[in-house]
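Per your request, structure below.
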């Protein structure tokens, strides 16, 4: 338990180290701020009709809303050959494809289809696997194992899904589907050999040769997961810094990097994000879409536990101190950078929040083999232990009204969101259910909480890198959480307060190995 908390609090470090002059490479741009530059098809390479369709289809990318529009016809997509419109790119190896999908207009045929498709070739009889939503709501995983064979199907235990995902793991394919806001249901088919290099993309089939149907695809993501043999907390993959509208669920990638960016804070003026990478902190200017190193003086082994004061003037950081056996120690610096002021005398200490009046900091401290929530004055002094339950207590954060501290705890055997009074009294559980819930962040207006949810297969004392996770939101007073983002991430995704000042958006980090894959390709 101690080891896991120590490593996780250190971001991806296996030990603390002094950063060299080469580290600012974290600030190198890996993509145009407009996401896809001048490519009229966004992330995709090409499109076209597969099979002898009577009515030609089309595809377009709307850069302003980051949506894809497809129009297609086609008599069928079921027996030994297919007819449909396909917007595609080539990929090798394993991947995860996800999107929000919807038909445009009332439509004609109940069996019209839209979704994701993975295909061995562009021949109409080619082997394929498809994540499909029909006009009548039927949601299914469809596949043709060999060219010319009839299509098989595994029906999902959900109808009218609009959040669709398909994952390739070798020759196995897993489809996950949900109504946006709900958690996934999944089905799997093994042993479908499509070849290493395949066509992947979005499709629409009208199921009627005389009719064209239209579909809209949003939040389209192609993720290359961490490779086999990956060593957690030692190896890393690339990052995508995203902004999410919590009401609509619309997402925007504002920056891509082949490095491990983590834990974005949103500045009080709404103009920038602060994140960490390779032990340094960076300020990302949202208007210029450019990062710059933030001066933290001698503190150059910073982990991903950092937080801005409510007035935005001071940044609290957690940095590993060689003088303290490389333990994490909490410091404060001016928000614009400067000389660190040491706050905690003991380590490891991992900062998570400020009191609204700026007088106190709350953090997770490892003391005598136990990790609990502590409070300390911003100018330092004696720390006050707020929790003492058996298990791990972590991620403390004040609500803006100053009368409540939210945190996460696995004292019941599963990691859940809790809250308490500022003196540690009145501790009560807030989130329930099968997921492992971490890092509650309260909106500036005090109305809502966003947190990170891992699956049941994750150790309740760990929050690892590179997993399929949910960002979920619930009323601050309590209630049923709903999913606001389906993400490949985990450690570093949303460890710290990351709401926009207007309480409308959050910033987070997703991960993908696309950079290494594209280079190899």
């Amino acid at each position: 338990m101690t080891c896991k908390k120590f490593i996780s609090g250190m971001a991806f470090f296996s030990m603390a180290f002094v950063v060299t002059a080469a580290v600012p490479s974290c600030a190198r741009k890996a993509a145009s701020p407009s996401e896809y530059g001048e490519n009229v098809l966004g992330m995709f390479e090409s499109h076209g009709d597969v099979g002898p369709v009577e009515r030609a289809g089309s595809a377009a990318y709307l850069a302003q809303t980051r949506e894809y529009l497809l129009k297609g016809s086609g008599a069928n997509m079921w027996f030994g050959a297919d007819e449909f419109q396909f917007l595609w790119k080539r990929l090798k190896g394993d991947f995860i494809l996800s999107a929000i999908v919807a038909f445009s207009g009332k439509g004609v045929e109940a069996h019209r289809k839209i979704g994701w498709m993975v295909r061995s070739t562009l021949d109409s009889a080619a082997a394929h696997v498809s994540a499909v939503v029909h006009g009548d709501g039927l949601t299914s995983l469809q596949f043709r194992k060999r060219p010319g064979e009839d299509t098989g199907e595994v029906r999902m235990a959900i109808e009218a899904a609009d959040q669709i995902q398909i994952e390739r793991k070798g020759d196995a394919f897993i489809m996950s589907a949900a109504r946006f806001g709900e958690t996934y249901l999944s089905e799997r088919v093994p042993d479908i050999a499509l070849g290493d290099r395949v066509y992947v993309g979005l499709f629409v089939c009208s199921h009627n040769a005389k009719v064209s149907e239209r579909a809209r695809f949003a939040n389209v993501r192609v993720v290359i997961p961490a490779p086999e043999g990956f060593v957690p907390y030692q190896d890393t993959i690339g990052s995508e810094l995203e902004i999410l509208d919590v009401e609509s669920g619309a997402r925007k990638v504002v920056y891509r990097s082949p490095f491990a960016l983590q834990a974005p804070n949103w500045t009080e003026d709404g103009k920038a994000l602060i994140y960490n990478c390779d032990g340094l902190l960076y300020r990302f200017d949202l208007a210029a879409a450019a990062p710059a190193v933030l001066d933290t003086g001698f503190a150059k082994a910073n982990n991903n536990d950092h937080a801005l004061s409510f007035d935005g003037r001071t940044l609290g950081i957690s940095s590993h101190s060689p003088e303290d056996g490389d333990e994490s120690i909490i410091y404060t610096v001016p928000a614009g950078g400067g000389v660190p002021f040491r706050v905690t005398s003991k380590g490891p200490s991992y900062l998570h929040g400020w009191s609204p009046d700026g007088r106190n900091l709350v953090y997770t401290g490892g003391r005598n083999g136990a990790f609990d929530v502590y409070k300390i004055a911003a100018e330092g002094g004696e720390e006050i232990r707020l929790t003492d339950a058996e298990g791990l207590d972590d991620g403390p954060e004040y609500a803006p009204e100053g009368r409540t501290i939210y945190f996460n705890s696995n004292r019941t055997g599963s990691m859940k969101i809790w809250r308490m009074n500022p003196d540690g009294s009145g501790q009560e559980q807030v989130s329930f259910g099968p997921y492992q819930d971490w890092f509650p962040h309260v909106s500036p207006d005090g109305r809502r909480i966003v947190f990170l949810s891992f699956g049941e297969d994750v150790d309740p004392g760990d929050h690892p890198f590179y997993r399929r996770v949910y960002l979920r939101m619930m009323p601050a007073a309590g209630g049923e959480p709903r999913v606001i983002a389906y993400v490949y991430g985990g450690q570093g995704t949303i460890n710290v307060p990351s709401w926009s000042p207007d309480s409308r958006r959050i910033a987070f980090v997703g991960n993908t190995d696309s950079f290494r894959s594209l280079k190899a390709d």
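The CA atoms of residues 76 and 207 lie 5 Å apart.

Regards,
D.
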